[in-house]
């Protein structure tokens, strides 16, 4: 509940410090006194955006601070999730500089506006004349039904499943798109891979083939050169081997008389043996070298295929071609894996959808079950506030299986009739402003018995009502205040008389400037204020007596 509100340098307010009661708090005052200004200041610490810089003193910053008693409202999780210090007496503060820069704090910890707004929605519900239009909103209508059906846990279970379902559907859609793109290039990838695979490339073969082709291409020249070398060494008139043999004979003859020449003879003998061996190898190599045009053609064809692939893929080696082949294989395999993943994910999405349908049907049944109770309770409350013939009808339509959304598959719609014999229709078509105000009050009075909301504010929802009906509206507000703090801004004395605490908002002129102020009224001041609300600025004895009777009735 809101314990204290401090407003500094906002609009017509210089410095205001208000402490509120835990029950029904009434704010009254003349039109234009500043009641809406106070509410506007309060909305700033509830996360509303600053629409303009309306400062009392343009040289100073504006500060709005609210102190809230929050124990018993199970808000610890919110503070933990947002890394904030949990205090049973929590302070929300907003500072706005003269340049328009805004800062927000929760228990002196800086927070962004979204976090402040999120906490504000858990602390205060502001219900104004204009807010009655939210009753036509499908989300609000569904919220009413779910709150009274106690569907919070079931809805959380459904939404957790629905979020998972949405994520998987989104992933499936991505995979399908990726699969379509991949399949477009799959044929080309497959063609490229098969083209390389068909050639059956072997690591290092290019160099061997190029060497073999070079040998085959020059086979005749090679044979001619080898034969020539063999001839010069062993067969010509001046053959090296014959000359060396003669030289060996001469040295051996000299060795008979010159022992030192024996070593030279041995060396000549070794050279002769080596040359004979060389000649044998030359002859063998010459015999192995053949002119084979068929083999040359075969190698040329093979190398041509390799060169063609290298040119196509912009590489220079078989090693690089083999790497491209492996890459193509991986890509083809990944496309195949995507198809398997799509198939698996399709099955998961199908199963999630089936689970969602089951939970959504349970949710729908819970909503259907509570609807008659809501209709009857609202009808009873409307009768209390003078709308004896009013009827609220709630239509709960179960949509088809493909219409699942974050809240199930129901279309909940409120229909209303304020008059006997009038068929219920959408409220925007059949309800006046005053009727909508009382209908909303009836609905909210029902909701507050099922939720732990610290504070509700009614901002002049008494439009179009008076007399006994106004008194009944006051009774309902008084009843609400037994479970929660209620702050009501009103022009009706019947409602004002029900307050546990009564505040008067007024303006005064000081130092050539108009100030908005507020004060808590004592017993005598309340009689006078309600008397003014009954008859005008200077209430007569009858008005004052009526005021006392209203207060006495409320006290009784």
Q: Name the CATH class of the largest domain.
A: Alpha Beta
Computed structural class? alpha/beta
* Fraction of residues in H or I helices: 55-70%
Biggest sheet details: 6 strands, antiparallel
General form: elongated
Number of helices: 17
- How many distinct folded domains? 3
Radius of gyration: 50 Å
Pfam families: SMC_N
Coiled coil: 148-175, 328-355
InterPro entries: DNA_recomb/repair_RecN (IPR004604), P-loop_NTPase (IPR027417), RecF/RecN/SMC_N (IPR003395)
Family: Belongs to the RecN family.
Account of the protein in words:
Helix content is about 55%, strand content about 15%. The chain is of the alpha/beta class. It has 3 domains: about 1-130 and about 435-520, P-loop containing nucleotide triphosphate hydrolases (Rossmann fold, 3-Layer(aba) Sandwich), CATH 3.40.50.300; about 180-335, no CATH class; about 520-555, no CATH class. The strands form 3 sheets. Strands 2-1-4-5-6-7 form a 6-stranded antiparallel beta sheet, covered by helices on one side. A 6-stranded mixed beta sheet has the order 8-12-13-3-14-15. A 3-stranded antiparallel beta sheet has the order 9-10-11. Strand 5 and strand 6 form a beta hairpin. The chain is elongated, with a radius of gyration of 50 Å. May be involved in recombinational repair of damaged DNA. This is DNA repair protein RecN. Keywords: ATP-binding, Coiled coil, DNA damage, DNA repair, Nucleotide-binding.
């Amino acid at each position: 509940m809101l314990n204290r509100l401090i407003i500094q340098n906002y609009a017509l307010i210089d410095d205001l410090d208000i402490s509120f009661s835990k029950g029904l708090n009434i704010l009254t005052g003349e039109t234009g006194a500043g009641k809406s200004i106070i509410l506007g200041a309060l909305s700033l610490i509830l996360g509303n955006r600053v629409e303009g810089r309306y400062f009392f003193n343009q040289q100073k910053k504006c500060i709005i601070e609210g102190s809230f008693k929050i124990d018993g409202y199970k808000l610890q999780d919110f503070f933990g999730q947002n890394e904030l210090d949990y205090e049973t007496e929590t302070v929300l503060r907003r500072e706005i500089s003269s340049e328009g820069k805004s800062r927000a704090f929760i228990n002196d910890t800086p927070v962004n506006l979204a976090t402040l707004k999120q906490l504000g929605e858990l602390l205060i519900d502001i219900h104004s004349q204009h807010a009655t239009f939210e009753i036509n909103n499908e989300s609000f209508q569904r919220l009413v039904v779910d709150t009274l059906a106690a569907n919070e846990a079931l809805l959380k279970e459904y939404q957790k499943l629905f979020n998972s379902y949405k994520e998987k559907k989104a992933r499936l859609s991505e995979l399908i798109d990726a699969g379509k793109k991949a399949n477009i290039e799959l044929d080309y990838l497959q063609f490229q891979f098969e083209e390389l695979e068909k050639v059956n490339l072997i690591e290092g073969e290019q160099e061997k083939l190029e060497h073999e082709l070079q040998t085959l291409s020059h086979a005749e020249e090679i044979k001619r050169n080898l034969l020539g070398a063999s001839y010069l060494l062993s067969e010509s008139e001046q053959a090296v081997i014959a000359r060396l043999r003669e030289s060996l004979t001469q040295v051996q003859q000299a060795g008979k008389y010159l022992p030192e020449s024996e070593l030279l003879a041995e060396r000549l003998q070794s050279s002769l043996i080596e040359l004979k061996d060389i000649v044998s190898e030359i002859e063998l190599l010459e015999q192995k070298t053949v002119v084979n045009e068929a083999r040359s053609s075969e190698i040329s064809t093979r190398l041509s295929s390799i060169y063609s692939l290298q040119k196509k893929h912009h590489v220079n080696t078989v090693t690089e071609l083999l790497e491209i082949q492996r890459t193509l294989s991986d890509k083809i395999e990944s496309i195949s894996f995507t198809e398997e993943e799509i198939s698996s994910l399709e099955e998961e999405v199908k199963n999630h959808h089936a689970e969602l349908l089951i939970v959504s049907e349970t949710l729908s049944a819970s909503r259907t079950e509570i609807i008659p109770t809501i209709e009857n309770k609202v009808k009873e409350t409307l009768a209390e506030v003078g709308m004896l013939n009013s009827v609220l009808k709630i239509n709960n339509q179960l949509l088809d299986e493909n219409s699942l959304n974050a809240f199930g598959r129901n279309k909940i719609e409120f229909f209303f009739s304020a008059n006997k014999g009038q068929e219920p229709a959408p409220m925007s078509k059949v309800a006046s402003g005053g009727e909508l105000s009382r209908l909303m009050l009836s609905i909210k009075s029902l909701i507050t018995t099922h939720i732990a909301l610290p504070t509700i504010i009614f901002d002049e929802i008494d439009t179009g009502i008076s007399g006994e009906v106004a008194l009944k509206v006051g009774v309902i507000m008084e009843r609400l205040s037994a479970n929660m703090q209620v702050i009501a801004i009103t022009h009706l004395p019947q409602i004002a008389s029900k307050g546990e605490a009564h505040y008067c908002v007024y303006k005064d002129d000081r130092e050539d400037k108009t100030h908005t102020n507020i004060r808590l009224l004592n017993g005598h001041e309340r009689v006078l204020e309600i008397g003014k609300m009954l008859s005008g600025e200077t209430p007569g004895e009858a008005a004052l007596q009526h005021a006392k009777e209203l207060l006495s009735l409320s006290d009784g």
